[in-house]
């Protein structure tokens, strides 16, 4: 048995842990194990890939095909996005959608149906999948897509690994003219201003904002809006040498857990002030590599240790466009309780009406909180606000919400559960999340 946790270091489970390198080996493990969950690189923040019996897909990590002319690529589920970038960027292709880390597996990207800074333009990862191959709980191998075994496909995209094991995924990449991003950073003095800036810049391919969630008064909700588009090295005045340069591997690491008192409302206020004023002018424009734009936290290994031994909870919710008031109410609740988060990231979602995926047209805010004795009761209060404004919580980031919050927030939850039970009838594949939310 091994103590295992995901990226937030909470919760921790004592589990058997093994991998597989072939479908036959996986089928044998499925037949020998009463219950289990398949896990990628463990970078989800919650308990979706935790169980007392865990099977890792990290060793199932071969590339199967890559058409450099069409940008269609197929790989096994254990391949990391990091690996995909290393072979696709040099020949002019990029991930169609990427989250804030490149160290997740391809299977994990599907199970979480990851979104990025371009959801309002390009949707989530599922929008770019051509088809995928899965192994069901009984060992049967089946192919699915949006048009073939579509119920299985849509229940798997965002389904937290409960329908079966993803073996391989074929999807379409995005063509690029360089590995660089033309970036614009704009200071917004208030929440109203940042929301207006999002609307004014809706045509930008990538958009994301950092919010100072502890600043009150006339500068309540002050923010930095970061916009980006892929830089065309052929048409611009500035010509970049080595325009398809691939990212470097990280060398810095946090070697130990920070003490619990290191992160408090005073240190967070100080950080927020420094971070906001790092942009000296109202607007700053520059050209930067994709690695710094999409994956700033990947530069430091084990950065999760700064939250201390007890770990942290990333709280991410979405509310509809017409319910933007919910953002204000939640930010004021954070200030009232002094529960600051220096990683407060705001994005805009476009339309998405998938079965169980997180995005809906609206605003999504992600907040990191160090775990303490008061945190979960506080997050329960935020859950109620989110539901009151017609929103929901991201399953990939969750490790503590009550089942009623899930069932109220996801209107097609019962349809999802019915499909899961169709393909996983004896609940062999389950997780701490599925049990906690009574999905299985």
Written overview of the protein:
This protein is an alpha+beta fold and 440 residues long. 25% of the residues lie in helices and 25% in strands. It has 13 helices and 21 strands. It has helices spanning 23-32, 81-88, 106-111, 119-122, 150-156, 191-200, 265-276, 290-294, 325-337, 375-388, 403-409, 413-423, 432-436; strands at 2-5, 12-19, 37-39, 53-56, 63-67, 72-76, 93-94, 129-135, 141-144, 165-172, 174-175, 180-188, 206-211, 223-230, 252-253, 283-289, 300-301, 312-320, 344-349, 362-370, 392-393. Strands 16-12-14-13-19-20-18-21 form an eight-stranded antiparallel sheet. Strands 5-6-10-8-9 form a five-stranded antiparallel sheet.
Question: How is the secondary structure organized here?
Answer:
Layout: E1 2-5, E2 12-19, H1 23-32, E3 37-39, E4 53-56, E5 63-67, E6 72-76, H2 81-88, E7 93-94, H3 106-111, H4 119-122, E8 129-135, E9 141-144, H5 150-156, E10 165-172, E11 174-175, E12 180-188, H6 191-200, E13 206-211, E14 223-230, E15 252-253, H7 265-276, E16 283-289, H8 290-294, E17 300-301, E18 312-320, H9 325-337, E19 344-349, E20 362-370, H10 375-388, E21 392-393, H11 403-409, H12 413-423, H13 432-436
Parallel strand pairs: 2-4, 3-4, 15-17
Antiparallel strand pairs: 1-2, 5-6, 6-10, 7-11, 8-9, 8-10, 12-14, 12-16, 13-14, 13-19, 18-20, 18-21, 19-20
